[in-house]
Amino acid sequence: MAVASAHRRKKSKIGAFFHRLVDWRVEDLFSKKRPPPRQRTIYVNHDLPPDAYDHKGKLKKEWVYTTNQVVTSKYTIITFIPRNLLEQFRRVANVFFALIAILQFLPEFSTISPGLVLLPLIVVLLITAGKDGYEDIKRHQSDRHVNHSKTLVLHGPGYSNRNVTGEKEKKFSTSIPIPVSLKGKNAPEEDAFAADIEKQAHQQEAQTPDTPPTLVVSDEPTDEPDDPQFIDPPNEDKPHWKTTIWEDVHVGDIVMLRSDDPIPADILIIATSEEENVAFVETKNLDGETNLKSRHGVAEISHLRTPEDFTTTSLEIEVEAAAANMYQMHGAVSIKETDMKHPIDLQTVLLRGTVVRNTRWCIGVVLYTGLDTKIVMNSGLTPSKRSKVERKMNPQVLINLAILAAMAVVCAIVDAVLETKYYPKQAPWMYGADRSDDNPRINGIITFANALITFQNVIPISLYISIEFVRTCQAAFIYFDHEIYYPATDTPTLARSWNLSDDLGQIEYIFSDKTGTLTQNAMIFRQCSIGGKIYGGDNVPDETREGEEVIGGGTDGDGTMVTPTREDPSSSGAAGDESKEKPGKAKSMESSSTASPPLPPPKVNTHTRFIDSQLQADLSQQNSDSNSQHARALNGFFVCLSLCHTVLASQDKDTGVITYKAQSPDEAALVQAAADVGFIFRGREKEIMRLQTPFADHLEEYELLNILDFTSARKRMSVLVRKLEEGDRRIFLLCKGADNVIFERLKPGQDELKDKTEEDLGFFASEGLRTLCLAYKVIPEDEYNTWADKYHDATIALDDRDEKIEAASDEIEQNLRLLGATAIEDKLQDGVPEAIADLKRAGIKVWVATGDKLETAIAIGHTTNLIARESNLIIVRGGEYGSETGKSAYEQMYAAIDEFFPESGILELAEVYPPGENRDTLKDSDRHRLRRMPTGASSIAGHDNGDRPGGFVLVIDGLALGYALKEEFSKELLLQLGTQCEAVICCRVSPKQKAEIVHLIKDGLGVMTLAIGDGANDVSMIQAADVGVGISGEEGLQAVNSSDYAIAQFRFLKRLLLVHGHWSYARNGNMIVNFFYKNIVCIGVLWWFQIYCGWSTTYVFEYTYLLFWNVFWSIAPVIAIGIFDRIIDDDILMAIPELYRTGREGKHFGTKLFTLYMTDGVYQSAVIFFLVNYAYWSTTSRTDGYDGYIYEFSSTMVFAAVLAVNLFNGLNTAAWTGWVWFAVLLGPVLVWGYTAVYSLISPGWFRTDSFGNYWFVFRAALFWLSLPLALFIAVLPRYVAKAYKFMYHPSDIDILRTVRKLHPDHDITNDPRITRRLPGHDDDGRSFVSSRASTDGYQTPRRSFTAGVGRPSLDTRGSQVDMATGLRAIHRGFDFSQEEGGVAIRRVQSRLSSRHQSRVSLHAVEEERNPGGRRGSISLFPNLRKSIKERKASAPGKIPFQSSSS
């Protein structure tokens, strides 16, 4: 593969200036220059300090905060006209037309009325402005929907916000009042479009069963802040929460948020409804991660809970200047009465773009609004995008301007010479030349200006009107295409920017988000391996599974799962119903503190998520001697699933529905799967975990002793629990984690089970599933007590705490017994693997940028076909260049190229080395040791590691990416390495880094890029790409509002590019060159006539023929090409994605094609003029002696030119439909009819030179001789060239079009000669099949995935190489997502540690009171039930996790 930057040469100064001119952004003139951000102090319920005012008593600018209004639109009423005109006059042609129009206002150059001269330009500007205005009105309406979202803000007497906010921007959508009568009787206050957007935004939420059950509102008033008495009361005489729209939220406002509320600004947490003052938020809009994050309030102000509390308290908050860094924030808050400062960091702040989950209410104070919020600072301004075809047109227009200038100069010089030469000779045409206003010596200048006017059609103004019209029709075709319409949400594909349709046919790189774009963010438990036996679930029809998702519960972004009844009210009703948001109290298993009899079995839906009849049969045999060992393994497996987690469970007291709330959707899916089998986790009361099993008539109870948290380094999670049964108080360690981590900690003697489980893991990975291994061990009491003391000491150590905790955890997690493995599907959007596979076949490289961790990114890469079955993964994690600790990202990339791409020539480039270094010095440096670390792990993958035929995929994390993009040399190295790989996956990246990745490819390679996403974290990436596509999904409409195209499903992208993009690019390119051609024919005829008229710029045609040339005579065929042409049928383009290559390579439009058509136009104009000129012995064929009439023979030229250009345009049309026939025939019919009618108009009506012209023209034999002869000779070369190419050098499209024409019933999709390479086929470069993959570096095309065919089985055992450590391994599908080191888990750990300390102290007292007595912990739990029933079942031997009596 060629080096990526080989084509990038240093530009000349003129070229650099031209590119700067082309890349100049109009929006820079209209964007306000914001002052640099400064540190701010926010006063809550307190006056601003005196230093906030200047000497005149006016508030200083730095104390005025930005409004919370966020605007993605480009125009306002004031800026629309100047900004739109500036954008339109970026077109060189528009500037030219304006100058020509101004020139004709001078009497010396006037041809017709000056007003009529301006009319075409005004029409072009108005049509374009109307289109741009319509698009921007839609953006305004979308902005209105976001800015008018509602939240609750503190209002009332005793509290006021003294902080000052600037004025909101005037927007022209809200400035135009809409009469109520136009909205209908029952219309809401918002406009219909905004209501429709709101419906789309919440439709998915309304259908999702994962919403918590409807809470019951207590009739008695409470002191809870979300009590209805405090929300919008009729009397506002007390402090209360007032419903306020987002754009009216100000810095310093006190806001109350409730569960599932989006967060309107960056807010400091004051108090929450949860224990330990914790709030859970979903951050997938910011970082793409699906697991919930825990945030906590500032403890010192957590007593502020009700509206009245804020009337007696004043706060002073100091925070840093607004910054785009989403992972850091510093500040302090103090209560004015105490003046003690308390720290603020990112863990105490809720960022705009996130959503509150699993938290009933949360109160906070607004720190940053609008443009100062972190998510907005990571987004760019709405760009003014221009298509690549339009950008290429500018040089072609400049070429035509140069031709026009040359023609004008020639006319000026020759005319001046001739006038000067013949003026003294009293030439008859020089009569009156001695007047003062007609000086032969300066007439050359006048002739130059007249020539510009005469030949101005070289640059056709109607071309721009035609392009706008055609693109509008193409946008309508996309909108009405039912193949990319999503009926589930009634969402068609929408073209929000109409001028980029042809760019869709030239995409080379796609940058995609993961969460919500490729995946549905729903985890489904698919299979498991227990004791060496696979349980894959019963073969449930797809319709039933879909019903289960709607009825039976599942996971959404917050990891919430519901086990409802069929009548579960949580799965019905409108998502936006206000009653849903009212506070209430559900019976929570976490908050019950009184002893009670065993709860009745919960209501479980009959359509459960995981059903396996064989599993149920095996479980029922636990008491039989034949299969008791396997049944015990099953019991232990599902008990481990039910207890090894941090899930919370609550049960609605009215419906009996249990709701699982987890920080990770993975955990929720595992616990739900155990519940489906019958092992139902009933919740946790403090440290007591309750479990209902299918074999017991009471709840089993376990005491939670310790949680060994999951981290990316540990790749495992463990819990230590004590069983609370009379006679059975064993302590268990339950562990789940990656296969390699679990296997190396197993107790010896389990080789057979380990090998079988390893084989099953490989099978699960080949299906694209995410895997986990489960294991356990029984820990003796004394051993646990000794270890618990050691672990407690590690948790309170001041030095090397993390290392000591890890050492203690590793010590206890040894000698485990393997239970089995799970396989979860991160459910993809429908058709994603097939779409990505076909996009790769089309030659498009797909890069994925996600905020998820590395393992998740790799797992999604496998399931989506982004990573092929034999791919080799290059993993780059990072450190900073020059760091002494570990290998830097630069060194890892260098090592990867040196090892895997040594022949690429990349390392010969000087641009990839630091200043002053080269390949020799870098290799000799001790600082850059690029050899792979000897880990001994290479044998895992085998000797062919790195040589597998699947190519390479680069996986790079956000830290390494940040360092790689920091320096120019490392950025160049990343660019080179990325282009050598088939795909690139970037994980843990910020929104700003997503945009930087797009610019790396877009600016570094100069290729067409497309970015697709569905969340606010994708906005910057969407705006940075040439084409931005937004998915209207669960993450709101932020991405859609900023996009150029809006689709409902990722799979629609395939048809959008391969069909609509390919068609639009081919149509527009063909239309433009044919437009230039037809005008050259017309102007060429005028030009050749100058030889015979003294170069005086005289028209050979009657002026109206020239006036109507681009209006009637020749416009229809080119419009028909742009709208109706079809290079090949859509089903073939979908079946054979390799055909997209012609668009990627720009073969449908370019300077070469432009030159060819211009040459054809010059040739045809010469044929038409000179053949007619020499066919007529004079300008007329009349025999009555009046032979000086020029319009007779020039009318023959007009007819010949019109017929030639219409027929020529028809020859360049691939699909001759009825509309194309109509368009080709329309021009000739109109010109014949016009000539007949116009010639009948006598001079008595108005001045005309064509009266009676038809009588002489149509009756002349020379007319009927010249017309067909000129037409035949003019069109013959193009006809012969097309026939020769089709017969001897046909393209793939030519062949397939012929097959479809001759054999319309032939199934091209399933023809192996077309869609599959034949065995033993010789790659001679000439055949249809082999011609597709010769130079692209892509694999041979294979058959597309068709509807109804299941996902292919992917062997994902391709090797992966971690360049940071040198570790080589085989991927077996491990992935698990959970917040690491979050506030919630830290506080649980702290509580357990305190409990351990109390236990130690109590045991010491017991030893003093009862030396040698038996230690027990049951006395610690006075509220435990005393009526624990004995099990009646008995079995030979102790069953894991069962009481000793069983």
**Average pLDDT across residues?**
77
Unreliable runs, pLDDT <50, ≥5 residues? 5-11, 172-219, 542-560, 564-608, 925-945, 1317-1357, 1412-1439
Strands of the widest sheet, in order across it, are: 16-36-35-34-17-30-33-32-31-37-38
Radius of gyration using CA atoms only? 38 Å
Number of helices: 44
Instruction: Write down the oligomeric state.
Output: single chain
Strand tally, please?
38
So what's the overall shape? elongated
Structural class: alpha+beta
Please outline the major beta sheet: 11 strands, mixed
Helix content: 25-40%
Strand percent estimate:
5-15%
End-to-end separation? 68 Å
Describe this protein's structure.
The protein has 44 helices and 38 strands. Strands 16-36-35-34-17-30-33-32-31-37-38 form an eleven-stranded mixed β-sheet, sandwiched between helices. It has a nine-stranded antiparallel β-sheet with strand order 19-18-29-28-27-26-25-24-23, sandwiched between helices. Helix 4 runs antiparallel to helix 5, helix 5 runs parallel beside helix 12 and helix 15 runs antiparallel to helix 16. It is elongated.
Summary keywords:
1446 residues; alpha+beta; elongated; eleven-stranded mixed beta sheet
Set out the fold topology:
Blueprint: H1 13-23, H2 27-30, E1 40-44, E2 64-65, H3 80-88, H4 92-103, H5 114-147, E3 150-155, E4 164-165, H6 180-183, H7 192-207, E5 240-245, E6 254-258, E7 266-272, E8 278-282, H8 284-287, E9 293-296, E10 315-319, E11 331-335, E12 341-344, E13 349-350, E14 355-357, E15 361-368, H9 374-377, H10 388-422, H11 443-454, H12 462-479, E16 494-495, E17 509-512, E18 519-530, E19 533-535, H13 542-551, E20 560-563, H14 613-619, H15 628-643, E21 648-651, E22 658-661, H16 665-677, E23 680-685, E24 688-692, E25 700-708, E26 716-723, E27 731-737, H17 739-743, H18 751-766, E28 770-779, H19 781-795, H20 801-812, E29 817-828, H21 832-841, E30 845-849, H22 854-863, E31 872-876, H23 889-900, H24 919-924, H25 938-941, E32 952-957, H26 958-964, H27 968-980, E33 983-987, H28 991-1005, E34 1009-1013, H29 1019-1024, E35 1027-1031, H30 1038-1041, E36 1045-1047, H31 1052-1089, H32 1103-1107, H33 1109-1113, H34 1115-1124, H35 1130-1135, H36 1141-1144, H37 1151-1175, H38 1190-1211, H39 1218-1238, H40 1253-1257, H41 1261-1288, H42 1292-1302, H43 1312-1315, E37 1359-1362, ...
